[in-house]
Design brief:
4-stranded antiparallel sheet, 6 strands, Alpha-Beta Plaits, 104 residues, 2 helices, alpha+beta, two-stranded antiparallel sheet
């Protein structure tokens, strides 16, 4: 099985806009995943092929997949967010692994 990549659990991220302070730290860390909208709040967006523009997921609780190469940036965003509104969870069981509701 040489040449195969290690299996890594799928992760997704969502933002609680009720707690978002609009600082934009998340968009600085991971602009491929987070973006500030016209209302001044941050939203997630799904990964898209290069050259295409992602549509912001503005529905409450909308989650976007976290591409593995961006996981560290997304986790840093969750840790640095002043509003503590970024939630990263495992897709398989919905358990929050990073963010305000993650187990210590």
């Amino acid at each position: 099985m040489s040449g195969e990549h290690e299996v890594v659990e799928d992760m997704e991220v969502w933002i609680d806009q009720d707690l978002c302070t609009g600082d934009g730290i998340c968009a600085q860390y991971a602009p491929e995943v987070f973006e500030l909208d016209i209302d001044g709040l941050a939203y997630v967006k799904p990964p898209v092929p290069a050259g295409e523009e992602a549509e912001l997921l503005t529905a409450p609780g909308a989650a976007a997949p976290v591409p593995l190469p961006l996981l560290n940036d997304v986790v840093a965003s969750a840790k640095e967010c002043p509003g503590e509104c970024i939630h990263v969870r495992r897709v398989a069981d919905g358990a929050e692994v990073y963010g305000p509701d993650a187990a210590a």
